[in-house]
Amino acid sequence: MPFDGLVLHKVLKEIKDNIVGDRIKNIYQPIKSQVLIQFSQSFVLLSLKSPSYVILLSQKPNVPIQPANFAQFLRKKIRNGRVINVEQLGLDRIGFFEIESYDQENSTMRKYKLFFELMGRNSNVILVNEDNKVEESLKRVYKKFRPIIPGVKYLPYYDDSQINILEVNIENIENIDYDRLMGFSKKSTGFLKEIGIQRAVKDLKKPYLFYFKEGNTYDFSAITPNNFKYEGLKPSEALLKVFQERANQSRLLEIKRDLEKRVKSEIDRLEKTKEQILQDLNEEKNLMDLEKKGELLQTYLYKIKKGERYFTVTDWNTGEEVTIEIDPLLSPTQNLEKLYKNIKRTKSKVEHAKKRIKKVNNELEYYNQLFETISSAEEIETLIEIKEEMKDIGLISENKKSKRERKVKTTFRKFNYKGFEILVGKNNKQNDELTRSAAQADIWLHTHEIPGSHTIIKSSGKEIPEEVIDYAAKIAATFSKAKMSSNVAVDYTQRKNVWKPKGAKPGMWLYKNYETIIVEPFREIPEKP
């Protein structure tokens, strides 16, 4: 999201059309790094927090009741002042509002320039008087080569030796040094190389920004973003949409990380439990040996002498000698009792482990499936539904605040291919709903023994061609844990062959009479109809 000099050029044109001739009603600092100027019908927000930007707003954002020091100073100097001009220095990320304000102390009109330098961590807002001296700045700078403190002469951080494509003769530009172009970010330079200077100049004269989507990220550009679908929006509208999308994406990632952490903790716990159960099951290998030793010990009990540590006898079945370790402090009968207790305890442990391993495997399958639904979620609403599911199973405790949370209901992912509708669940509850509501003749698909979404091809009374099944299988693989893999196995069958076991957790179904197809997941999600 480069807020470069080209974007500033268009943003300032919109601001200029709205505030020149208007008076400043008030000045605020929503946060330490921002300055908000209120006009009669609009607001201008100057933000130095990365990314630094300026934007025209129609509504007032939240501001603290008590103004910060810089806002108080600006109120004293330019509140009620009239904006007489808005300018940008070339195509650089520097501009100013020229303001005419009445000085009550001296009973005279004075002119100020409120400069804004949008230079990343060096960004600043500086009030300069008619003598071109700094009155005050949002950030004071004490560097020797360019101090920004009250009373010093203001020197804008501006290199006028760079090329401004709006001021040069385009026809004479040959062998362009792209590094010397003013106002171009790396992304804008990339677009320029594709569309050419003449097209870029025409684009800069258009009153809108190009709003487009790159992958899963929304962005804006002052010149045509070649190879991307875009729409032209007013600069303020484009900026707000991108900022909102970024804020939503940030919140999405925050919620996703929290839910993934909870599920991963449960998976780790179950994996440790499974490891212990497998160790118990492994003891079954020793049972036959223990039972044989028990038989031999019972048969030759009369030959054991108290105090012996080892007792060797011949196995009548194999003819081999078998050495049995015994406790010299116990009598032969007590040793036999100890051995049979060990056999009984091991049998009990193995039987219990056999019962537990199936349950733990089912739990692991469910939580891996749950983790995949979180990982593949693209909307906050989908994550909220998953959070509700986690509350239902007790993985998240429900408090008074969570009970008041807005319940949401999202729709299935929908695709269309060769006239057939393909539906994909976004989470386990949707998987349940999708499969339950499918017609018996619909085709149900799922990655083979891999966590993924339920996928349905709606038959609508027609025979479903193999190429449609192949396409739907690719969709199913794309919305699974194997989405980055190759040669993914996907099972498919008619919906009538799929059922949910009694008491099974959300999204957990069984199926029979299926066929398996090997497909490559889509690297980019197909466009929805």
Automatic annotation (TrEMBL):
GO terms for cellular component: RQC complex. The keyword NADP does not apply. Residues 416-503 form the NFACT RNA-binding domain. GO terms for biological process: rescue of stalled ribosome. The keyword Cell inner membrane does not apply. InterPro entries: NFACT_RNA-bd, RQC_Subunit_NEMF. Pfam families: NFACT-R_1, NFACT_N. One of its GO terms (molecular function) is tRNA binding. Residues 253-287, 336-370 form a coiled coil. Keywords: Coiled coil. This is NFACT RNA-binding domain-containing protein. It comes from Petrotoga halophila DSM 16923.
